[in-house]
Amino acid sequence: MSTHVLKPPKLRRYHILESISSKTFIPREYQVELLDTAREKNTIICLGTGTGKTFVAVMLIKELSHQIRDPITKGGKRTVLLAPTVPLVCQQAKVIRDCTDLTVGQYFGNELGSWSKERWLCEIERNQVIVLIPDLFKMILFHGFLPLSVINLIIFDECHRATGNHPYCEIMTCFDVCSSENQPQILGLSASLISRKCQPSRIELEIKRLETVLKASVETASELTALSKYGSKPKEYLVEFNSCLEDESVLASVMSNINSALVFLDNVNFVNDVDNSLSHPCKQPRRYLIEIAHVIIALGPWCALKATQLFIEEINVTLQSIYSEDHIRFLILARTVLLIIEVQFQTILNDCDLLTQLINKAPPKLQELLKILRDYKPVSVPSIETSSSVTSAEPSFSKELEKKCSTQITDANMQSENPPASVQSVASAKSENYDITCNKISKDDIKEKRFSKNNLTSEEGKSLCGLVFVHQRITAFLLSEWLSAVKEIHPDFSFLSPSYIIGHGKNNSGLKTILMGFQKQEEVLQKFRTRMYNLVVATSVVEEGMDIPKCNLVIRFDPPENFRAYIQSKGRARVNDSVYILMVKSSEKKSFIDTLCDFKAVEELLLIKCHKSDHGMEDPVLESNVDELIKPYMPVKEDGCAKVTLSSAIALVNRYCAKLPSDTFTRLTPKWYISEDYSSGCTPQFQCVLKLPINSPVKKSLVGPWMRSKQLAKMAVALKMCEELHKAGELDDNLLPTGKEAVKSEDLTIEDATDEDIKRDEDPRKGPGRPGTTKRRLYYFKK
After folding, report:
1. Which of 120, 242, 284, 571 makes a 20 to 30 Å CA pair with 15?
2. Cβ within 8 Å of residue 346, ≥6 positions away
3. Residue 254, domain extent
4. Rounded to whole angstroms, what are the CA distances from 299 to 71, 214, 575, 743?
């Protein structure tokens, strides 16, 4: 009996060509370097969101996979990956399954805590890689179900959480009783080494503390390693809003009723002599009242009325199923207060039309949000004149922030006689137009940036793909509902397709009906990836690790609570020319700027403290005249024929390598190194040597000419290699690779292919199949 392995869908093929770099030779060299480091010692990798931390983890698992292929009873070991949330457990397990041939088990849920030792040993024996939440792994170790000596590698995802009594810290205490030669290797992954508010002067202490806890050293490029193609460098802006609300007399009466009820509930002395499994009878009523107070202040009358009605409906359902008299009494109290609030808000809104209810009666914060979103309206959507107060946004960043950022970072490095280049770049940010600058932006800037390129063929450059971050689950739900209602009533916002996503952990929300399970999360994320939704309101569950599309707009509706939240939410803005907007109340602007300056100082100083290498930071090249330095190569020197220039040569070499035969475990990349010559005076010269992958027919290494920069040296040797490839028959007269590209399905997305691409891809190739292609498919007997 033979088995047949299905090839990946052809629809996904051409995405690999879109991701081919034109600046440096693929794959990402900083990932390979970090992998080499992780092989040698315990390592904490700190890379920004979207820069490939998981790639390094998967490659390290592969490197050590020979240790885990045998059963434990025959001396085999196991690899453990710890992820702090259920979505991350499922996501990381799927990536490992897709990228390796290893058997992977994923574990989460309270019910697993009751499993016996025999059940766990059976699961661990059956699976070579174990992906689970840290609480379960802590239980396995603390109960002696599994010794550390049978584990070869532990990967801590979001390792910055290792503070205080977090399970990560408690797991590491088990290393104290395990001999050093039997201890597993450690790999930590994080988008930010600092998880809490930290003064710049304490950065080094925080990093050393994390290194001590995890018994590993930080080897990282940090968030600011200018990975221009792979990392995120969004433009940052600050949007102020006033806190004043209309109908303040009515709102004052509403808040007075809520406060009186809360004072009463706080002073209740209750002794439970009947059923210890029941919570305090005031707990849930108190949550309802606290959350409705928050909604009134933050989201205004329309959202408050909707939340009140949902709370009342939920209380009515609860009253039908609960048997405790005390719980019934206090729930009725909360319902009475909510009914009064409902009547008061209906009085405010009933005299208005729906447009006024939604927009004119909305608090200034929501109106500012609409101003921002309106600037992303497609050109095809006609504008109308209305009486609403929504006008185009003009977000700005105070010059005070720019000055303060520079001062903070400089002060933190006063002990350094020669400040690092990164500090100098911030100090001179204004003159160099560095991304950390705090310039003013106008609506014309946004529209020119988004709509001036009429030759764009991809909707990604035009259409909105945005995230709005909030603190509370109820805010995410109501904000999504409000945006949906605005979309229906105001034509300027008809292009919006909003939804929300929240966590499904312990219920700290008054409204239970909005809780979102894992399947619902995946449904929303899938629709967001396919652009059925173009705006998602989310809590912090999306900040860490979730696989979401690259966004061109990220809004912090509620300010980031700490450095981790700041850097990870900003990392979601990964499209070129993306925008990251922070909303702040006018009265809190000064303190917020102080906090933001600390974040930026930490961000810069992490770069100084961490490992530095090339990481794709290329020398500046004058794109306008670079092709004049060396003549283009033309196979046929006639008008209208193909040619490759200095600036396009690297991309062509990378495209050729992408088409070489390969499998999932092969990394096809050109090898190159730079020679430097400083003998000619003050101007250094650079020369690049390039060698293609081993399965290319062109075997020899090529030495390029001496050039004035490293980037030009790479371009020059790549141009020379293109000529050699054409002469060897590897490129045709149109300078296209003659072989079929190697495709890894896990790296591609289905929406990137056009109909024309699909038709071209399905055209049959003549001739015998080349090794590594589907035409040379082999069948074998499954053992």
Report:
1. 571
2. 305
3. 249-268+280-352
4. 57, 42, 29, 48
Q: Is the pLDDT of residue 436 over 70?
A: no
Which carries the bigger pLDDT value, residue 272 or residue 560?
A: 560
136-151 pLDDT, tens per residue? 999 999 888 999 999 9
* Exposure on the CB side of residue 249, measured as CA atoms within 13 A: 2
Name the residue among 222, 217, 221 with its Cα closest to residue 207.
217
Q: Tell which residue, 123, 192, 180, 117, has the closest CA to residue 148.
A: 180
CA distance 67 to 75: 9
**Would 208 be classed as within a structural domain?**
yes
Query: Domain ends where: 300, 334, 352?
Result: 352
Assigned domain for 506 exists: yes
Give the number of C-alpha atoms closer than 13 A to the C-alpha of residue 542, restricted to the C-beta side: 33
- Give tens-digit pLDDT for 612-652: 434 444 444 445 567 778 888 988 887 768 888 888 888 88
Could you tell me the pTM of the whole model?
Answer: 0.56
Tokens in use for 727?
Answer: 């002469």
Average pLDDT over residues 230-257: 76
Cα–Cα nearest to 38, from 189, 178, 246: 189
Say how far apart CA 125 and CA 631 lie, in whole Å. Answer: 62
Which range among 414-418, 489-493, 501-505, 518-522 shows the weakest confidence by mean pLDDT?
414-418
In the structure, how many helices (H) and strands (E) does the chain have?
24, 16
Residue 76 binned pLDDT confidence (cut-offs 50, 70, 90): very high
Question: How many domains, in total, are found in the chain?
Answer: 4
SS3 for 593-655 is HHHHHHHHHHHHHHHHHCCCCCCCCCCCCCCCCHHHCCCCECCCCCCCCCCECCCCHHHHHHH
Q: What's the CATH code of the domain at 516?
A: 3.40.50.300
| 577 Rama sector, left if φ>0, alpha if ψ -120 to 50, beta otherwise | left
CATH of the domain at 702: 3.30.160.20
586 and 637 fall within a common domain:
no
In a domain, 226, yes or no: no
